[in-house]
Amino acid sequence: MSDVPDFEKIIKSIKPAPPLPPAEGKVIRVDSPLGIIRAIESAEENTTIIIAKGHYLMPRDCLLTTHRVTIRGETGDREDVILDSDMEFDDTTPKFTTRLGAPAIIKMFQATNITIADLTLANNPKYGLLFLGDGRIHGLKVYNVKFHNIWARGLKGTGADRIDDKLPDIGIELGASERVEWLRPRDGEIRHCLFVADTVKKNDKDGFDGDYIAGMDLMNVDNFTIADCAFIGIRGKNGGARGGVFIWVHSDNVTVENNFFYHCDKGVSLGNPSAHDRRTYHIQSSKIQNNHFIGGSNKAIEVDYGNDVSILNNTIESDIRKDFSAIQVLNMREKALVEGNTIRLHGEEPYNCCDQVTFKDNLLEEKD
After folding, report:
1. Which of 64, 97, 204, 364 fits 210 for a cystine, CB–CB 3.0-4.6 Å?
2. Which residues lie below 8 Å from residue 219, measured CB to CB, with a gap of 6+?
């Protein structure tokens, strides 16, 4: 049961996702937790894995390493197919770390053109869906997926030069630009997804006093779109949750559009103010547009350490944002644009921005 104000009303306002076309190629139907794991880990290329309606208590994580695989719920209703870790706050559990480290329900590595759709991932202490950024995750599509009570990141994408990478002696540095460009995640889309936490995060043993939580956290991505999603109640124990959308570390050509953020501490974070030492920029050539931000104690939009980011036609209102501005844009190398936004103010400052930011045609409304 959610403690978010007007939760049922918010849920009813979310429009259903248009259905995906019928499955093509080889189709496998599964209806048990072990059947799901085996189908994913033994999948052949050009396969669709159909998961029957049911609530599945997953015994461990699973790893997908095959190209052109679709994993989808059978009915098209994400509430009908639930993959449940049944383990909310134990970050040290080995149960979901049998494949490639950090706890997650589904993990992906060296797999291109993957679709995950029409299902729910629930109750994991760390991640729901994890892809490794040095694994050529190209053409990822996450569609109509619910991330429910995932207590670090619903969707996590690591950097393209992970510190635990092991390379043969081939004369290429881990961080060499040609290697990163070849491996980095690109051409991804996250659409019609729901990221929801029923309560404020309770576990303060996460290394950040209970504030290590976000809807998604992606690094090194190029040409990614996050659209038509809803983010509800992503809140840290101390009001310092990361963004519902948090994207950083050498990311380019990101579009965040037509999303709704309800009562999340922070809405969209492109860049990380506390990690300028992590590469030469965090975000470039990107847009945050046509989003709605309702509630939230921290910033609605935060952009930091990059260049050429546009913030366009967003609507922002919170009556509990007292210590932060609605839009913060800092450490831009050359330019950023804040245009056409509507900010309904309840005593807070509308902007905290550097001199490189241009403002055009924004509407500021003072509320009681």
Report:
1. 204
2. 133, 157, 158, 159, 160, 247, 248, 249, 250, 251
User: At residue 165, does pLDDT exceed 80?
Assistant: no
| Three-class DSSP category at 34 | helix
The per-residue pLDDT for range 92-112, each reduced to its tens digit, is: 677 888 877 788 999 999 999
What average pLDDT does range 221-229 have in this prediction? 99
Among residues 317, 323, 324, the alpha carbon closest in space to that of 346 is found at 317
Report whether 341 contacts 311 (CB < 8 A). Answer: yes
Q: What angle do CA 168, 174, 178 make, to 5 degrees?
A: 105
Q: Residue 122 and residue 327: Cα distance in Å, rounded?
A: 31
Query: How is residue 73 annotated by DSSP?
Result: E
Query: What are the C-alpha distances in Å from 23 to residues 51, 72, 78, 169, 307?
Result: 12, 9, 17, 43, 41
Length of the chain: 368
DSSP designation for 110? S
- Give the model's pLDDT for residue 170: 46
0.85 exceeded by pTM: yes
Which domains, ranges and CATH numbers included, belong to the chain? Answer: 7-17+31-366 (2.160.20.10)
